Amino acid sequence: MTDELVPDQADAPPAAPPPKDPTEDAAASWLRRVSSSGSTVTVLAFVLALVIGGILIAVVNPAVTAAAHYFFAAPLDTFEAAWTAVSEAYSALFRGAVFDYQADTFAKAIRPLTETMTVATPLIIAALGVAVAFRAGLFNIGGQGQVIMGASLSAYIGFTWHLPAGIACVVALLGGLFAGAVWGGIAGVLKARTGAHEVIVTIMLNYVAISFLAYFLTTEAFRVPGSAEPKSRTVRPEAQLPLLFGSQYRVTWGFVIAILAAVFVWWLMSRSRIGFQYRAVGFNPNASRTAGFSVQRITVYVMLTSGALAGLAGAVQLLGTSKYLTDGIAGTIGFDAITVALLGRSKPLGIFFAGILYGGLSAGGRFMEAVTGTPISIVLVLQALVVLFIAAPSLVRTIFRLPAPDAELKGATA
Amino acid sequence: MKKIIRVAALGGALALALAACGSAPEDTPSSSPSSSGGAMASDFKGCIVSDSGGFNDKSFNESALNGLNKVKTDQGIQTAQAESKTDDAYAPNINNLISQDCNMIVSVGFKLSTATGDAATANTDVDFALVDSLPTDADGKAIELPNVKPLQFDTAQAAYLAGYLAAGTSKTGKVGTYGGLAIPTVTVFMDGFADGVAKYNEVKGKDVKLLGWDKGTQKGLFNPPEAPFAPGSGKANADSLVAQGADVILPVAGGAALDALTTAKATPGTLVIWVDSDGALVNPDSSSVILTSVMKLIDAAVESAVTDAAGGKFDAAPYVGTLENGGVGLAPYHDLDSAVPADLKAEVDQLKADIISGKITVESQSSPK
What we know:
Chain A is mostly helical.
């Protein structure tokens, strides 16, 4: 799709082959191991995280602390208080993420689920981008920067260009896609041409993007006229993503875009020729080179695809949920996407559910804090623990005394 | 056998000792409302939403939360809080608190202006107090709503006094300032500070230089945008101001103001003017380098707004903290009281009186309108 960006080097032998460093092979094989571990490990990792999170909730709860002061006089009090604290917190988490059974009306009761979908939407799309890179053996840590650039360009198009309804939204989305692709592509070209490690380059490009965003928000082109606040104008109504279920829920057609993106990535990675090349390069770049693939060109394509998806995530977040640009537009989407991609084991369906789970934890965590006063940081710990256990499958297997799976011995599955 | 007895005896003694350490509270009928002390228990529920800086920001979020908690202690109202980790959490956090039957919601920071405007329009039975901003509609235009009380502060007035004081205290003839981000709630301090320095030069015929801010062009020294208010991100700016010869520094940067204290302690003769709260009290280990503080009493404003609402006396009239109503002010000199000449103190007091009387007007484009 973007052949003109990189000269064809398929047959030319690389003048100076990128130096092979052992960490790269180790990283790629780690990725393979993580993504091939069974779904049992994922579920158990989540269970373990919930258990540890429960202990933390009990420890920080003031009622439990008070009861623990006289633990040896009446130990049951402590356990009772701990049980109350943990069960209230987790039921609030559920009520805030899935179904609020205490709400007056059905419409209000299902609102949490739509909140979860809203939070999950950009996460799923950005995680698909990270996953494409993962499966091609590349770590795209630059999701954050790509989300920011995508959101910035789509915002600019959204509030400046006067286009008819329908077209305006599509053009703004494509703008975000394009900006993200460029931002990811820079890292791809640098990797392909000079061997600069994509982890370093993408991390650094995050900082560049943050600074660009801060600069944009000081310019007349972006700011609300007459205001000194670092906040852009609101995108025109024609460019906004329409709401999916009416005005009482925040979820937009962005969720449908996320599903379509997941289907596209499935087709790309499992059915298309170029996706086969992506995976081949990820599995063994040397063999791919011997087989006649241009590893460099494919590296650039992978980063373009990965960046485009992250940029689309930024555009969807902006045109659907935020509607104007602030310095915090990307939140932590770019980083959470890495987590979601790992959690979903880099498969589109897995990512879809991992995104929903992650969105549910975020939406539920906010609700939990409002209802029970449990600090929302507990949820961040929970999310981090899930990743930690997913990233160390053998730890989970040891804890639950599971046998080593065959998948690991056979190697990656396609 | 002997060993077992010994272990058992030791264990028994230990258990007894531990049991003695804490005894369970008596079973009192804790449900009776009289047990909540002298304060009247209240059905009123006051809630608060932070901006993405979080409640531990050593700045406005923390201050606003303190104000709400003061009402909780004094009046026995119920409270709930929601800390926003990211900008997209504002709207859901406000909605969650509304679903928890909050009577009043305090939104902290201009970043919540649109989310507050939207929620207040949709929920006319809930009252709001919005710190540092007017509510705005979806297009970012300021609007007036019958259920939103804006709490704003004309900090330029107090910063003006600080600028005059800094210029009078400086031995090198150079004072400096740096900010977290170039946003109105930050630059309003810098504008007032610049005018105070200029006033000193005008009155004394001196030429004290201000580094780090140019009021005319509205350009100055700010922290890196990836973490503008986080401790550590102000270090380079503080060091560079000192390297250029500034010996009084005004850091307007939340947690990143701590870096100015570190620099000042490492460079003898350098003083810091704290902002928002009384710095000598919140940073007791640095009180020897804190000349004074430009105080912005968000906690008091929140406290009074919530108290009014709890007493059924909510009003949506915008509150603007000034020197006159004590919403902004200069903190005591504390440890450095003897370092400030008496006549300089008198001049600062006179300026304060002149600003209150309207003889001097402090102007900043970032002052609340």
